[in-house]
Specification:
With about 400 residues, the protein is mainly α. About 65% of the residues lie in helices and about 5% in strands.
Length: about 400
């Protein structure tokens, strides 16, 4: 049983037993065995009257006679008196918070996990508690995020991270760095997120946990993309995708792919078609496929239509500001196609073929000049005639001397 594993881990001082207990709890949760009344009955038998969490658990969870089932077994096991351990109290609280969130009772879960975090912060300093505490920090942030109250817990998360650093709590540091990054990015505080990244120790942010490393690289990719560091953003997002589970985690993989597609387009690269055909991700990536198609064709009108039709999707995914930057990439691609097709074309005709709006058409000469200066096309502007003259491309095998 999971509670027995927690007690064994304390006696043997082996942290992997706590991980095994958490995996057993996750399996019971997937089977639907982690219900409120069952966890309430478990808490009533496993938590002693002297526990500091007794009142909070009794107020949040219903008291029932059900057990957690054969796979859990905690209620039957807890019938025998056992030594009071804070790790067991934290494990029971973790089960209670998870059951409440699954049942949709987010406010009750928030109240319970807030009491637990305050207890951990004020009176618990045991390395055997680190793994359980990090999970409780996650649900502490999740409950507040679901209620739209993430800003309230930012000072608490910072204080918890300082304490974890002083105590050399690696799992706590990994979790709290990611929770702080998510908190900052939720409110678009990219400067604060970058300052946090610069101040945390090398190796923080998930080096010990593959799951935490995936999240850390994803958040760093977002920060780099907003800071115009597209190459670094691409590396971070690709690393997050490589380390993410390939059989599940569809939401995380979809979010990574969305940001990666936009970053690749900003770099002037065209994502492969197979990216948009991944099983389970086709519907989520459909707006980004239309966007990539418009950028590849250099069609300004098609790009603006795709951006306008899916503006709510891009705002929800928090990539709308990057989509606005893509307008310049579309113009560069369109001008490159025109320079290959025409050796000489008037600026007015180029603006018409690109489908520029009236405001952009008036500034078409400046747009073309900037693309030429940036090396997007090999051409020059004849101001006397108002035309774009493409440079002749010499053949690779043409001789340098006359024959």
């Amino acid at each position: 049983a999971a509670a027995a594993l927690v007690r064994r881990s304390i006696a043997a001082k082996e942290a992997f037993l706590v991980q095994r207990a958490l995996r057993a709890t996750a399996a019971a949760r997937r089977k639907g065995l982690l219900k409120e009344d069952e966890v309430g009955a478990f808490a009533g038998k496993a938590i002693g009257d002297g526990s500091p969490l007794k009142a909070s658990l009794d107020a949040a969870l219903p008291q029932g006679d059900a057990s957690m089932g054969e796979d859990g077994g905690e209620a039957a096991e807890a019938a025998e008196p056992a030594e009071a351990l804070p790790e067991v109290d934290a494990y029971v609280a973790l089960c209670g918070v998870t059951a409440l969130i699954d049942a949709g009772k987010v406010e009750q879960a928030r109240s319970l996990v807030t009491d637990v975090v305050q207890w951990l912060q004020s009176s618990v300093n045991r390395r055997t508690m680190d793994v359980l505490a990090s999970r409780l920090y996650f649900y502490y942030s999740l409950a507040h995020e679901k209620l739209g109250r993430l800003a309230e817990i930012r000072p608490t998360l910072l204080a918890l991270h300082r304490s974890a650093a002083v105590r050399h709590d690696e799992s706590g540091q990994e979790m709290l760095v990611n929770l702080l990054l998510r908190n900052y990015l939720h409110y678009s505080l990219y400067d604060q997120a970058e300052k946090l990244r610069a101040q945390v120790e090398q190796g923080s942010g998930g080096q010990g946990s593959n799951q935490q490393l995936c999240r850390y690289m994803f958040y760093m990719g977002r920060v780099r993309a907003v800071a115009l560091e597209y190459s670094e953003a691409k590396e971070c997002l690709q690393q997050a995708l490589r380390k993410a589970p390939q059989a599940g985690a569809l939401g995380f993989r979809a979010a990574c792919n969305k940001w990666l597609v936009v970053v690749q387009l900003l770099l002037g690269e065209v994502p492969e078609r197979s990216v948009f055909r991944q099983e389970g991700l086709q519907a989520a990536l459909e707006p980004y496929y239309r966007l990539a198609f418009a950028v590849r064709q250099g069609d300004v009108q098609e790009f603006e239509a795709a951006a306008a039709a899916n503006v709510r999707v891009f705002q929800r995914d928090r990539v709308h500001n990057l989509i606005v930057r893509l307008h310049r990439t579309v113009l560069r691609t369109g001008l490159r196609n025109l320079s290959l097709a025409y050796s000489r074309i008037s600026i007015a005709d180029a603006a018409a073929k690109l489908g520029l709006s009236d405001a952009d058409a008036e500034d078409a000469e400046f747009i073309v000049a900037k693309v030429i200066r940036d090396g997007g096309i090999d051409a020059r502007i004849d101001r006397a005639t108002g035309t774009i003259i493409s440079s002749e491309t010499a053949g690779v095998y043409d001789p340098a001397e006359p024959q």
